Each structure stands twice: as C-alpha cells, then as structure tokens.
Amino acid sequence: MSYLDTPRLHFTGHFQADVSTINNVVGYFDIDSFDPAKDQKLNGNGGWNPEGTAIFRFISCTITGGQHDDRQIMSAADDPVIGMALENANDKVFGKLVDLDPQQQMVSQIWGMKLRLAGNGQPALFGGEFVPIAFYDLWGRQVFARLRSDQTLGAIYQSVLKNVVWEGVSGSPLLADLQRVSQDRMLSIDFNVYGYGRDATNPRYTIGRIAGTIGPYYAGEPRHFVMGRQIAPLGEEPNPPAPVSYVDWFTCKVHDDRKIVTADFGNCLPIVDAGGELFPQGPLVLAVFKSETDVPLTQTVTADQVAILGNVDYLRPGWYAQTAGIQDFDYSGDSWCVANIGSRPILMLSPQTGGYSVLGQESLGGYYVRADNFVFRLNPEQHGQVELYASRYGQPLAGPIQVGPTLGMIGQTGSQGQPPGVAVPKVAIPPDGISYPDQAMANAAGKAVLDIKAATLKPAKPRGYIDGQLYGIGYQLPQQPQQTIGTPFNFTSVLVFSPINSPEQPTWYSDIQPILTQYGNLYPIMSRHLVDLGNYESVVAHLKILRLAFSLPIDDPNHMPVTRDLSEAKRTMILRWIDRPGSDGLPIKGTPMVSAGTASPLETIAPITLDLDPAQTRGKTAALMEFKARQTKDNP
Amino acid sequence: MIRLDRKVIEAVQAAAVREDLYPWLQKAIELEHSTIPPYLTAMFSLKPGMNDEIARLIGSIVQEEMLHMTIVGNILIAIGGHPAINVPGFIPEYPGPLPMAIGGSSFKVGIEAFTLPLVHDVFMEIEKPEHPIPVKTLEVAVPDFATIGEFYAALTKKIGEFGNSIFTVPASEQVLNWFDAARLFPITDRTTADKGIQIIVDEGEGTQTDPFQSPGNPAHYYKFGEIFHGRKIIKTASGFAYGGDVIPFDRDDVYPMKSNPKIADFAPGTQARLRVAEFSTAYSNLLNVLHTAFNGKPAIIDTAIGLMYELKMIAVSLMQTPTGDGSKTTAGPSFEYIGALSDADA
Fold it and tell me: Going by DSSP bridges, is the β-strand pair A434-435/A399-405 parallel, antiparallel, or unpaired?
C-alpha cells in the first residue's frame, strides 16, 4: 500500500527552499582562488541566494481533499480532516534541502524534516519523520516564466514518514482507517513541487507550491516509488511558446481487488506559470492498449485498438487542489479490461481526428526496474546497499537485474561561470573507486539488494580541490526491449569520500582551517553572522556548539556541515582537534603553512556554453541544460 | 535594577508553604526571559563589521540572561514546581511592561533596532542596580520602591526559612548543560539556591562596591553604559570612568528595522510576512523545547541550542527583507507564540 491506495489525504500549499547558491559553482570549492567580496555577492557571482540557510519547510499546507474507499472527500462535511494543517515540527529546527555535490545537483535531498497533522486545536493528530530522499522526475513543467528568474522545473518527492506517533483522529473516519491500516509506524507520502521563485525582489522568492498526498504504508514495500505501472512520455518536452501537448512520466496502480486504476498525474501535466494552473492541452484520456507491443506507439492509434478507462479530470476547476492530481478509474464494467489490464500497456491519449495520438505509453513490455534508495555517501572501504525492485505490469518480477557504470546526470559544471583559472574536475575517475557485481538477483517479491563498496581512492583526491569522487550506477532488465525509453533519473549516485592521513594531534593551520574555510566561503549566512569558520579565534569562541553540531547524526536537521559532504574521517579529526587542547586549554593552532597551491584535479572537463538567460545560469536549470547539451554533443 | 510592585515582595514574604513560591519563581523565569527578545533584536540589527564589539557585548548579556532563566528554572524544579514556558502568556506583550510590572506600568519595552537612546533609556533602565556606583557623573537614584534585588533577597530569605527539606527533586531533572559548572550547578539545598540567586544578582548588577561582576567583566548595567558612552569602563584614581578603549558605533551599519513588528502587520503572501512568521514559528519551537527540557527531559536542551542558532540565521534574513510598505524599513522578529496551528503563516 502507498499513497496511491486508500484512505489517502491530499494537501496543497507552499514550501520554502532557502537554498544557498554559492556552492552551485564547482570552482568556488577552491579556497585559494575564492574572493568573498565578489563570490558571495547577491545576483553577482554569489547567485540569487548567497545567504541561503538551506531551510526547507512547508508553509500554509492544508488538507484539501481525500479518498476513503470509494468515497471522494471534498469538504469538512464529508470528513473533518478537510481543512486541517500539515505542519513542520514544533520541537526542532526546520528541515534542510541539500545537493549531493556541486557536480551532482540533481539529487537534492530533504534532511531532518518532521511533519505533523494539526487540527481541531490539537498540535499533532499524527507526526512523523520524513525519511530523507531526493527529488525525482525533474522536468520543465512550467510553460511560461513571467519572471525571467522563475524556476520552471517541477519535481516529485516520495518517501515515508517514520516513527509515526498518533495522538488522535479527531472524529475523522478517514484518519481512523489510515491509522488502522498503516504498518511499521510509517505513512507513505508523495508531493509535487513547482512554481518556485528566485527573484529576491519578488514575494515568491525562495517559495514554491506543493500538492501532495499521504496514504498508508505496508511493511516491505519500496518507500520512494510505487511498484505500479510506469508511463513514459512519447513526446518532446515542451519548448514554449510552441503549443504544448505533452505529458511527463507518471505512475498508475491497478487495484485488481477493487477494479480500480489509480493514476498519479500530480507531476506529469504542464502548468501555465508559477501560479500552478494546469495548462489546457485539450482532452486527455487514460486507456489500455489492446495488443502487446515492443515499440513506442508513435503513430495515431484508432478507437478499436484501445479500451478507454476515462477522461483525465484535469480541466475541472479545483481538481488539482482537491486531488493533488490523483484520479481513480473504475474499470469494473469493462470485461475486456477486467481480463486483460494486467498484461497490456496503459496509455495516455489525446483525441485526434480518426483516433488518438499517444502522449504516454507504459514502459515497453511492462518491464520496469528502479532503485528505491539512489543517493549514497560512502567513506573509504564502506559498503552500501542499493535496493532494486523489478516488475512487469506492476507485478514483482524475479530474475537478474543488469548493473553497470553510468554517468547519468553526474559530472556537470553546475554553472555557466567558473572562476578564472579553476578547471572543473572530471568525475568517475579512477574507475575502480567503487565496486559492485555486474548483476543482482531479484527474489519473488521483485527485490534485489546490490552491495556496493567504496575503495580507498588513489589518488586520494581525484578532483583536487573538492573532496571525494562521484560515481553513477545504472541498471536494467535483460528482458527490456531495445527501444525502451529510460527515465534519466533511473540511476544511483555515489559520492566516495577521500581518505586522509589523520594525525593524532590535528592542528588548526594544517588540518582544520582548510576544511572550515571552504564551508565559510560557501555559507556566508553562517560565517558572516554566527561563526567565522576560517578564523581560529571565532571558531574557538564557539567550540561547544560546533562540537555538538559536528557530533549530530546526518539525519538531524542541525547536523554540520549542513551540506552533509564531510567524510567520517574529517569529521572525527575535527572532533579530535576540539577534544585535545594544548597546554593553554585551547585547541592547537600550529603554525601557518605556506600554501601548497590549489590541488589539481586528475583530469578536467571542458566548459560548455549554453544560451541561457543570465538568471538561469546556475542551479538546476543550468545543470539540466548542460546535461542535455553534453548528451547531444556525445551522441550527435 | 528597577522598581517593581511591592506587593510581589510581600507575597513572597507571606509564603507559608513551598507551593506558594511556585508562581513567583515562574514570574522570575518570565522576567529573566523577557529581556532576551529586546536585547537579541538590538543585537541582530547590527550588521557585521564596525559594530561587532557592541554585538559581542549584548550577546554576552543575553547569554547571562539565559543562564539566569535556567538557574531560576532549576530552583523551581528542585522544590517540586514545573516551569511553564510554551504558553502564550509567557512572552510579554511588546511594546509593553515587563513581568511583575517591573519599572512600573508606564515603563514599556519594545522590539526595536539598536540605537543609543534605546540602550540608555530602556536597557540601562532595566539593568540599573539598586545602588549604582557613580561612574563619571552618573546620578544616584534613591529608591523608595521595591527592587528586583529585594525580590531575589526575599526569595533567598524565604527559601532559608523553609530549609533544605523543600528540595525534593533530584538534579537529574535540572538543566545543567552549556554553562560552566561554577555558574550552573545542581540546586539541591538552600546553599546552592542562594549561590544561584547571588550569581543572577551579581551578573545583573555587579557588587555594591564594584561595577565588575568579575575582573574585566562588567555587570549588565555597566556593559550597556560602555556601549552608550562608546568606551570601556576603567578604574580611575577616584572611582570608575567610561574612559577605556573605544567601542565604535556606526549608525549606518544597523538594519532599518520596523519597530515592534507583528505578523499581522504584513500582508499575506509577502516575503516580510513569510519570514516574520518563520522566525516566530522557530521561536515558538524553541519555547516548546525549553518547556520539555525544564519538565523532565533536560538532555533535549541540545536541540534548543540548535534552534537558537537557527533563529539567528533566520533573523539575519529577516532584517534584510524590506517591509514593502513604501518605507525604507525592513522586517524584524515579532516573538509571537504560535500554538497548535500556524495560521499566522503566509
């Protein structure tokens, strides 16, 4: 069970993502060339939010709809849960939104976020910890950018709330059932983020919109995707102002017992602008193709080739807010569907003269494999377990899953402007920085666990001025037809940290200052206003709080560094430095070193020039455009 | 320190059982807390750079107010009471009088950006000792009213009368982290309670003969005096004078914060509204965590420390966010308690 089951709650509202923008530029990790006066400047080289705090929080999110068995819940008269608030924690700091690395900005994870449902004067009917996860299916969802700086991309976060504590249900039958059927003290949660603003002079600055769903979780199921039916886009992403006829990736779940297909259109439909209204592209129809096929249906299909499940309600006013884009289709009255829906592809259609054009088609042959957890930070010699799930037409598929290296979206420069004289490192070298078998075997539940192991990198710092190295791991099923359309997000990102020679008695100048100076450069909100991390006296004046922050587990919202890109060895070294003071009772300062100059990357990548609006030259848009440009360049 | 209603002293003196002291220790917690929002706001409003020394001085005072709040909280816990921190009434109305009508009902304290008159007219007034030591030409006020010093003296005396038997709750319930053990220690008997109260009085007022609470570290009143006069306090042949090193102040390096901001002052959907609400939400969370820490889970104080640092980061953003009302002012912290629902949000 998941958010695509019942009972489920839909919520809408806003979110704040107060991300810092300096670390989008790879070259700014080089402390020798960093110039705070220039590189921390708002809308200069510091980007559109140089003093970002990394805070991620929900704002004014309320329950706007729900589904309870076959009842759609639309008002407080249907169920008192409508109108309740989905709030952040009231007993800790806000969650944090953090990239994995400046060269992998496409897996931004939310850490340390706790959510609670508040209603009827009670601060928490239930509350739970959001298990950290990165967004998925990021795409150019917003057709018009009214502000040049608008973030036109949208994406999905799917996870679970864990350690859920129920305080009551406040007379809501839906909540009572949700509590009853959920397992492992978890709830499934999915939300779509879109309409994000990046103009410091605009009210929407660092603010975006959310539409999401909470549903039951069943033990043993994947936490970050639904093993269901995956519908791939057949068209090209819209390129406004050309007319839009496009539907991105989406998931359906066939509930065989109830003869219901539940489809999640929450992130797949284009929106007009940051206001979030769905872009009208004419009627859209969900259907089942009556034949098996191994190829994309690029030609018009005729009415007798398909069984219609129903129209997508997206043009109905208020539909998106009330449903978060999730719609049930009852096929109990269609005997062909009842008999065949489990073995024929689901389609998204747009009616045309003489039939339908196919905007979306289920993964070819119904085959699909995905990593549930897909972001890893590994210390030297550390292991990680990637949980892969294989399925066919939404049913578990036992057998081999092929695994191999891929770059995916890893390895970009992150920005159109790099500091002069600082080259961008090449990623995934040396190739033996990570090892894993070339196949994993899925069990009867479709699940396989791939053991990956980080090496002790040689050289220790293949990227020179940035710690560690990035690797990508791709996966596929041997049965997948040749023309399968893969989502660019189906791969696993691994950051392998650099080994260090950690002295018994670390000193400020030789061991600590280089690490903390880099953070100070990249997070001026902290270094200018709390602790000047590059300054011994300032650091020593705040030792106790720094010791606490560096000791907190990675999923604590106060964990330091906020970027979660510090190796265990370096973290331990900082704590040892604090804990082993010299004779004056203070951590040892040592003697200033003559700078050895910037450590050079093993290999570098050439910059690539993109024709982007100045407001879009860094961050997700730049990285996505760069990824596409490099793909085109490598595979003309 | 400044005057307060003599009825408070009389009530403390009239206490018959330890439970009679609970409301007054609770009031003392509220009092120690009540100066933190105005002091913090003044400190947050100083831009980094020229005014760093002033910010450091105010920061040291705020830390001591936090210590004092903790000491009083521990005394209340030690004699079986329960501090109530996460309730709306815990925070005074700003601008408005301080708890227990300190300074009289006409003495109002607000949430304002740093100015020298604010330091002189409000902060020094709050911290004015029972018997200020003349520094330069300072006037000596002769009090004909009760003082906070008397209040704490009455508490000490009453605790002494009750004796050690009222201390029934173990130190494991008390909040003892984050300050050195010489100043924050378990309250287990009248001796430790006396010692704790003496720290509060000394750090606030200094001793009766010396403006310094410890060598080189003036009491609050004199620290604010240093800021106001722009010089460190030094001992002279005839006494004390604000004649030491210069404490620079650049009035242009202060964020032009709107005074006494409230969430409701800002239009829904604006950056200012959003960030003022963000600050108050985080501040309310801090009070929630402090409440938990002072009610049986002292280890959670670490989470409170994390919240305090995050508050500062949010405050910095806040002070740089234009109010959007056509003036040149920026938003500021409203220190409002947000309870079950953040209906104050955007």
Answer: unpaired
Distance CA A57, CA A223 (A): 21
Residue A573 in any domain: the answer is no
Residue type, B151: F
Cα separation, B93 vs B319, in Å, equals 21
Query: pLDDT, tens digit, for every residue of B78-110?
Result: 999 999 999 878 999 999 988 887 777 788 999
Question: Rounded to whole angstroms, how far apart are CA atoms B148 and B163?
Answer: 22
ipTM reported for the complex, 2 dp: 0.92
Whole-number Å distance between alpha carbons of A18 and A57: 9
Here the CATH number for the domain that contains residue A620 is: 2.60.40.10
Can you give the pLDDT at residue B138? 40
DSSP B229-247: HTEEEEEETTEEEEEEEE-
CA distance B69 to chain A (A): 20
Q: pLDDT by residue (tens digit) across A252-283?
A: 999 999 999 999 999 999 999 999 999 999 99
Q: Give the list of residues 6+ apart from residue A553 with CB closer than 8 angstroms, or none.
A: A559
- The yes-or-no verdict on residue B5 having pLDDT over 60 is yes
Question: Is there a single domain that holds both residue A317 and residue A378?
Answer: no
Interface check for A129 against chain B (CB to CB < 8 A): the answer is: no
At residue A241, the pLDDT reads: 62
Q: What are phi and psi of B108, to 5 degrees?
A: -110, 140
Max Cα–Cα distance, chain B, nearest Å: 62
- Is the pLDDT confidence value at A533 over 70? yes
Q: Is the peptide bond before A561 cis (omega within 30 degrees of 0)?
A: yes
The answer as to whether A599 is a domain residue is: no
Q: Looking at the structure, do residues A184 and A66 belong to the same domain, yes or no?
A: yes
| Domain's final residue, options A308, A328, A362 | A362
C-alpha distance from A537 to closest chain B C-alpha (Å)? 13
- pLDDT at residue A35, as a whole number: 92
Option in B271, B285, B313 nearest A53 (CB): B313
Give domain status of residue A414, yes or no: yes
Domain co-membership, A393 together with A277: no
Residues in chain A closer than 8 A to B344 (CB atoms):
none
The tens digit of pLDDT for each residue in A575-625 reads 999 999 999 999 999 998 766 656 789 999 888 888 877 777 777 888 888
What's the number of domains chain A is made of?
Answer: 3
**Structural domain of A543:** 508-566
A614 backbone dihedrals φ, ψ, rounded to 5°: -55, -30
DSSP string across A127-192: EEEEPPEE-EEEE--BS--SSTT-B--EEEEEEEEEEEEE---TT-HHHHHHHHH--TT-EEEEEE
| Whether A289 and A311 share a structural domain | yes
- Three-state DSSP at B180 gives coil
Exposure string over A87-112, b if 16+ CB within 10 A, otherwise e? bbbbbbbbbbbbbbbbbbbbbbbbbb
Say if residue A488 is exposed, middle or buried (CB neighbours under 10 Å; 0-12, 13-18, 19+).
middle
Query: Are A453 and A314 part of one and the same domain?
Result: no
| Best mutation target, A20, A53, A60, A542, to test chain B (most B CBs within 10 A) | A60
CATH number of B3-252: 1.20.1260.10
Domain residue ranges in chain B: 3-252, 261-346
* Pair A455, A560 in one domain: no
Q: What pLDDT, in 10s, does the model give residues B256-274?
A: 999 999 999 999 989 999 9
- Looking at the fold, whether A471 and A560 belong to one and the same domain comes out as no
What average pLDDT score do residues B164-169 get? Answer: 96
Last residue of a domain, one of A551, A566, A581: A566
Contact B341 A87 (CB under 8 A): yes
Cα-based angle A572, A576, A582 (whole degrees, multiple of 5): 165
pLDDT of residue A240: 64
